[in-house]
Design a protein that fits this description.
Elements: H1 2-12, H2 16-49, H3 72-85, H4 96-110, E1 123-129, E2 132-139, E3 142-146, E4 148-150, H5 163-168, E5 174-177, H6 178-183, H7 187-192, H8 196-200, E6 206-209, H9 212-216, E7 222-224, E8 229-232, E9 239-242, H10 244-255, E10 259-261, H11 273-294, E11 301-306, H12 312-325, E12 329-332, H13 341-351, E13 361-363, H14 369-377, E14 382-384, H15 387-393, E15 396-399, E16 402-405, H16 425-428, H17 432-440, H18 444-470, H19 474-489
Parallel strand pairs: 4-14, 5-6, 6-10, 10-11, 11-12, 12-13, 13-14
Antiparallel strand pairs: 1-2, 2-3, 7-8, 8-9, 15-16
Helix pairs in contact: 3-4, 10-11, 11-12, 14-19, 15-18, 17-18
Length: about 500
């Protein structure tokens, strides 16, 4: 009886060895819950911090990585990060092939410009006169009044001029070039320095050319394929690959600009129709890839480029396909490459009416003042060209009556300023005689002064066109301008 009672008590009162695991399980369970909670909170922080590593066009699952949503560059960064931190990894060192990828991961986590609040990019048309229109494109860094002329700062700054001088002309936006910046100083370096706005001290909107035009001009230094283009730097011969995805990454993520241009193929004219058609079709496919890489970004715009040379049927196919795909804006590329002005205008007449009224239209690489007036009359909103600053560096000033070549002896004793009605010191404060003297003496200030005047003249021309459209008097303005230009040509 006593033995049975002791056996029953032992059964009812488990031993220390049996109770200990239960206490450890209870303790470990609480610890596991805390660990799981901390891991969950850390994962949520990482997810919020690194969400722009994901492809923004795809849904983002919570609480786990989805590797198929990463851009190729972001995947490289993630894999490099895992190799660095995996068990048994060599401490204190990073593989050379991982340095760039880890740098990108750090940049995407730390650069402030990548965490800007989402805003919309409305384009408002305030007035029209015939096909000409005036309005405003609102960006996260300022408003662009249209029609707009965009000074060209190829390497991030307008040649010979300070940011203050460029702004004093009335410019709302500047254009920079992806090709030149990716070669020198390098897009990753610009990103480490805070993006192109901080790097250049230009706080207004910036648009970048994709670099396609420059790369395609390197006929002997590049290899073209469906993937993209492999080329050698004209600076040091180093090899680079530019794909639609890489072009978007450089412009949107590393340079951090406001308006991104698709990568396109721009054949030199004249060219066989088959060659132009092949380039146009490849540009369409690249546009789709650029849009996929761009995703649903809210603080930047992606513009497509209509190609097709001067063939109206190819231009129509290109425009209709791009409009069906849908972009924030549409550029007309592949013009002003040697074709007569009449062919350029005929191509615009066939192309511009196909583009959406509610989207900005951009004519790339154009041009002379008369070209701007003719293009605005056909519904173009945005322009860029190197003519104002390049002409200034070679002793030429622009006016309503055409170019003024200050190398000519006829200006040696001309006491009149270039344009006393322009609010620009270079235009009103110096006589043509003095500027002629500086040009002949090859003084650096001559290049600065004439570039400054030319940009101020171009910006005032855009302002006059905006005012004429708003007053529904653009037809009269354009007719008078054409007449003055024709007299100067005679």
């Amino acid at each position: 009886m006593a033995r049975d009672q002791r056996r029953d008590r032992r059964a009812d009162q488990p031993s220390q060895a049996r109770r200990a695991p239960r206490r450890r399980n209870r303790h470990d369970g609480a610890e596991d819950a805390r660990v799981r909670g901390e891991r969950g909170r850390r994962a949520e922080r990482d997810l919020r911090r690194d969400r722009h590593l994901h492809h923004p066009g795809l849904p983002l699952p919570r609480g786990r990585w989805a590797l198929d949503q990463f851009s190729p560059a972001a995947l490289d960064a993630v894999h490099a990060h895992r190799r660095l931190h995996r068990p048994g990894a060599r401490q204190g060192g990073v593989r050379p092939r991982d340095r760039a990828a880890l740098s990108l991961l750090f940049l995407r986590r730390r650069v402030p410009l990548l965490a800007e609040p989402a805003v919309s990019f409305p384009f408002a048309i305030d007035a029209t006169d015939g096909a000409a229109r005036t309005g405003a494109l609102t960006t996260s860094r300022g408003v662009i009044r249209t029609p707009a002329f965009m000074p060209v700062g190829t390497a991030g700054g307008v040649k010979g001029l300070s940011v203050a001088q460029v702004k004093s002309t009335g410019a709302d936006i500047m254009l920079a070039n992806t090709y030149h910046l990716m070669l020198r100083p390098g897009a990753e370096r610009v990103a480490r320095l805070g993006g192109l706005h901080a790097f250049s001290s230009w706080d207004g909107p910036i648009i970048t050319d994709s670099g396609g035009y420059q790369v395609m001009s390197l006929a002997k230094l590049r290899t073209l394929s469906e993937t993209g283009v492999v080329f050698r730097s004209h600076i040091d011969g180093a090899a680079y690959e530019l794909t639609p995805e890489r072009a978007v990454e450089i412009q949107a993520d590393l340079l951090g600009v406001d308006i991104i241009m698709q990568l396109d193929e721009c054949p030199a004219l004249p060219a066989p129709r088959a060659e132009v058609e092949t380039a146009m079709e490849r540009s369409l496919r690249w546009a789709v890839r650029c849009k996929r890489a761009f995703g649903q970004r809210q603080t930047q715009n992606l513009f497509a480029i209509v190609q097709g040379g001067v063939d109206e049927s190819l231009r129509r196919r290109s425009a209709e396909a791009l409009v069906a795909e849908g972009f924030d804006g549409y550029a007309v590329g592949g013009l002003a490459v040697g074709e007569p002005q009449a062919e350029m205008l005929r191509t615009l007449d066939a192309t511009v009416p196909l583009l959406p009224r509610e989207r900005p239209r951009y004519l790339m690489g154009v041009g002379k003042p008369i070209d701007l007036v003719e293009a605005v009359a056909r519904g173009i909103d945005m322009f860029d060209c190197v003519i104002p600053t390049r002409s200034g560096r070679h002793g030429q000033a622009w006016s309503d009556a055409g170019p003024i070549n200050l190398k000519n002896a006829r200006y040696a004793e001309d006491r009149a300023p270039l344009d006393e009605g322009l609010d620009c010191p270079a235009s009103r404060d110096y006589s043509k005689a003095f500027l002629h003297h500086l040009v002949k003496s090859e003084e650096l200030f001559a290049q600065v002064a004439l570039s400054w005047h030319n940009l101020a003249y171009y910006q005032r021309l855009m302002q006059r066109m905006r005012e004429a459209i708003a007053a529904r008097a653009f037809g009269d303005f354009a007719a008078a301008f054409r007449e003055r230009w024709a007299r100067a040509a005679d």
